UniProtKB/TrEMBL annotation:
Catalytic EC class: lyase
NCBIfam families given in the database record: PRK11898.1
InterPro entries documented for this protein: ACT-like_dom_sf, ACT_dom, Chor_mutase/pphenate_deHydtase, Preph_deHydtase, Preph_deHydtase_CS
Gene3D superfamilies: 3.30.70.260, Periplasmic binding protein-like II
Residue stretches making up the Prephenate dehydratase domain: 7-192
A Gene Ontology cellular-component term: cytoplasm
Record's protein name: Prephenate dehydratase
SUPFAM superfamilies, sorted: ACT-like (SSF55021), Periplasmic binding protein-like II (SSF53850)
Record-marked site positions (Essential for prephenate dehydratase activity): 185
Gene assigned in the entry: pheA
Keywords per UniProt: Amino-acid biosynthesis, Aromatic amino acid biosynthesis, Lyase, Phenylalanine biosynthesis
Organism encoding this protein: Phytoactinopolyspora halotolerans
Domain of life: Bacteria
Pathway: Amino-acid biosynthesis; L-phenylalanine biosynthesis; phenylpyruvate from prephenate: step 1/1
Residue ranges of every copy of the ACT domain listed in the record: 207-284
Length: 317
């Protein structure tokens, strides 16, 4: 398959939240966007060069990380985050025309949506079962096609993005059924590793740190690399490495860009103390926040310290 520079994938099928996010990401304007069946399939198409990049959900303000995406970043051929994007999400319960709310017994949706609609379901459809699918739009499509579930019966309703009702010929039975009306999902554009975008002063850097020999304070050692250089973390998450029981790595989002001296020094520190460090990219922050840089932590401070050391070593002032 030829590489098409402006061909991007997204977690489909059509009318997923991920498609909605993809169509609003400024750096993808004008790009061709194609649906993929799973996060794995989309990221693998990036790895193989079939597409330039793909959009996948990474984190939700209520439910936390999307583990299928995190695990793709941790394992396999390395890929990086090129862009992040925040999209508010509202959930709609939808069914084939003629289905009424009390008759809904079998629901299908994505795990992130299920977690956020649990309270509403417990109150309004306490006896309904919820099956988990690869995306909210795949769920809507399964309801429209009368796909049968594990019990041999077709699903009655899907929890999906409002636009999925129209796309799959379903009717909304209940709208805004999520726990938090202000829920936001963080989507990322994944590409093959390459030169990161320029530092903007409002950036994040993501990475995975693998502990070297389990020992007391191993996590502290990782955290120290950031704290002594004044680098604030916005997220730290442990995930199994997939290589044996109890083996975990840490997925970190840090404020700043790999081009910032303090972030670069923290990365070098990690490289010295960890078994492995996987760089997952530096990219502009979706929230536009420009955190203040602490005293002694600016690029100039690091430059000055480095030339001072050089003068000691060479005897030249
Ligand atoms: O993109 C979708 O439709 C998904 O299924 C992933 C998802 C699920 C819930 C909130 C945001 C993204």
């Amino acid at each position: 398959m030829p590489v098409t520079a402006d061909r991007y994938g997204y977690l489909g099928p059509e009318a997923s939240f991920t498609e909605a996010a993809s169509r609003r990401i400024p750096t993808l304007m004008g790009a061709r966007l194609d649906p993929f069946d799973s996060v794995h399939a989309a990221i693998d198409a990036v790895r193989s060069g079939e597409i330039a990049g793909c959009v996948v959900p990474l984190e939700n303000s209520v439910e936390g990380s999307v583990n299928t995406t995190l695990d793709e970043l941790i394992r396999g051929e390395p890929v990086v985050v090129a862009t992040e994007f925040l999209l508010p999400v509202t959930f709609t319960l939808m069914a084939r025309p003629g289905t009424d709310l009390p008759s809904v017994r079998r629901i299908i949706t994505h795990p992130v949506a299920e977690a956020q609609c649990r309270t509403w379901l417990g109150k309004n459809l306490p006896d309904a079962s919820v099956a988990l699918g690869s995306s909210t739009s795949a769920a809507a499509s399964a309801v429209a096609d009368e796909t049968v579930g594990a019990d041999g019966h077709p699903y009655d309703a899907a929890i999906s993005a409002p636009i999925a009702a129209e796309r799959y010929g379903l009717v909304p039975l209940a709208e805004g059924i999520g726990e938090d009306e202000d829920a936001v999902t963080r989507f990322v554009v994944i590409t093959r590793p390459g030169r990161p975008p320029r530092a903007t002063g409002s950036d994040k850097t993501s990475l995975v740190a693998y502990i070297r020999d389990d020992h007391p304070g191993a996590l502290l050692e990782i955290l120290e690399q950031f704290s002594t250089r004044g680098v604030n973390l916005t997220r730290i998450e442990s995930r199994p490495t997939g290589n044996g029981m109890g083996r975990y790595c840490f997925v970190v989002d840090a404020e700043g860009h790999v081009a910032d001296a303090r972030v670069g020094e923290a990365l070098m520190g990690l490289r010295r103390v960890c078994a492995d460090v996987r760089y997952l990219g530096s990219y502009p922050r979706a929230d536009g926040v420009r955190p203040p840089v602490g005293r002694g932590m600016t690029n100039e401070d690091f430059r000055d310290a480095s030339s001072w050391l050089e003068s000691l070593r060479t005897g030249r002032s």
